[in-house]
Amino acid sequence: MTPFLNRRHFLTQATSGLGSIALASLLNQQRLLADSTPIRPNIDPAKPFASRPPHHPAAAKNVLVIFCAGACSQLDTFDYKPELIKRHGQPMPGAESLVTFQGEQGMLTKSPWAFKPRGQSGKMISELVPQLGELADDMCFLHSLTGKTNTHGPGENFMSTGQTLDGFPSMGAWATWALGTENENLPAYVAIADPRGTPQSSVNNWGPGFLPAAFQGTEFSALKPLDNLDIPAGVSPETDRATRGFLERMNQRHLKQFPGDTELAARISSYQLAARMQLSVPEVTDLSSESKSILREYGADDSQNILKAQFAKNCILARRLIENGVRFVQLFNGAYQTGGEGVSNWDGHKSLHEQYSKHGPVLDQPCAALLRDMKRRGLLKDTLVVWMTEFGRMPTFQKGASGRDHNPEGFTAWMMGAGVKAPFTYGATDEFGYKAVENVSTVYDLHATILHLLGLNHERLTYYHNGFERRLTDVHGHVLNEVLH
């Protein structure tokens, strides 16, 4: 008889289980357990974006996420491995027949770019991103992140929503649902897609999931006007204002008759925001007021690299949005595959050197200028900047190819700005950069830390959906207190 069918074993397990339940109940009654009571924001349907207090004092008021789609290689950017250089061309010990996402692995392969010490800290950073490297003393590196998937779409979902499946709220949606915004004329949450298009998981990266639709990200771009914002042709500004005034009076009259109609209140609020955006959005997206020196610093005037110039304009837009109090901004570098694998993003399977030689300059100067500019303007005092990608890449080249396969076992993110230590390095991968081995951390930990810096308790910020108390960090995650001031 198996243990599960043994009467003695069943009674033993049942007794200890019931005892554990009773003990947990007694500890909870005596307040000896951590408080897990949900904290839900009190949202006025007529003012869904009104600023709301955090759960505890916040270090950051705003968040800027820079997301490199396609899985940017940590081994060619920020994770220096001397042993990988030393063992170049040799098999990786214990992994000679390792099969990963696309197949069997070849030999250990050092980065095509040299690493050099940067700043006063001497942090070793690749020549692929030299201008970002100059900011090493302002950065807090997380070198021991681990993921749950080695597939791009689910990987992007996981980094943006804490779940690999579609249909869950993005981190920006959670933040704006909890906190609202201090700017009444712009969306609380903005996503800026790459000039080449949206990432593979598309709007899931900034979607509301099961949270109210009002808290989804609004897609902006410095390269094209926001859709459906202009007054229709043939309608004068006077007529437009009069029509909006008439509609508002009618809506308010109806709302007084049905004061409990929260759907109508929310709809009125969205129309009012849209009306205000007709004035505020053209102003914030109009880069003509930027000086020539700023355009040059970002690379927005680069006629030789049009893609870099376009991305640079998006970087300037990101700064302007943060400057105007937008709570959460996601800036994407890289889009879903257009023109073949790795051509429009960091998915360097077949020809990493050729492809990264194009992607590196597009990212480096504009992002470095964005960070310098924000620091110069004092924006980093209240803004947390997070650089991330969906997972890392292998220290080997793929067998028969000149690129690296997917690797969620150990990869890098970095933070800068409000509330984080800098220069600082947390965690490490093994001697080849394959697996996280020191202070191993998860994406849940990263999300918990971001919410904590915004003044939010990741364990108590929950939304009841389909019988579950859902949260960004699922049932996992710990705040990385070691990286915080």
Word description of this protein:
The radius of gyration is 25 Å and the shape is globular. Strands 1, 5, 6, 7, 8, 9, 13, 14 and 17 form a nine-stranded mixed beta sheet that branches. The chain has two domains: 62-222 and 299-483, Alkaline Phosphatase, subunit A; 226-286. It has helices at 7-29, 82-86, 130-133, 152-161, 171-179, 237-257, 262-285, 292-298, 306-323, 352-376, 443-453; strands at residues 62-68, 105-108, 115-118, 123-126, 139-146, 189-192, 218-220, 328-333, 383-389, 392-393, 396-398, 406-407, 411-417, 424-426, 428-429, 436-438, 441-442, 463-465, 468-470. It is of the alpha/beta class and 485 residues long. It contains eleven helices and 19 strands.
Give me some keywords for this one.
485 residues, alpha/beta, Alkaline Phosphatase, subunit A, 2 domains, 9-stranded mixed sheet, two-stranded antiparallel ribbon, globular
The third-level CATH topology of the largest domain is Alkaline Phosphatase, subunit A
The portion of residues forming beta strands comes to 15-25%
State the helical fraction.
25-40%
- Arithmetic mean of pLDDT: 92
What overall geometry do the principal axes of the alpha carbons give?
globular
Query: What are the low-pLDDT stretches, counting only 5+ consecutive residues below 50?
Result: none
Following the backbone from N to C, one meets helices and strands in this order, namely: HEHEEEHEHHEEHHHHEHEEEEEEEEEHEE
The second-level CATH architecture of the largest domain is 3-Layer(aba) Sandwich
CATH superfamily of the largest domain: Alkaline Phosphatase, subunit A
Radius of gyration: 25 Å
Measured between the Cα atoms of the first and last residue, the distance is 57 Å
Number-wise, the strands total 19
Protein name: Sulfatase
Organism: Rhodopirellula bahusiensis
Pfam families: DUF1501 (PF07394)
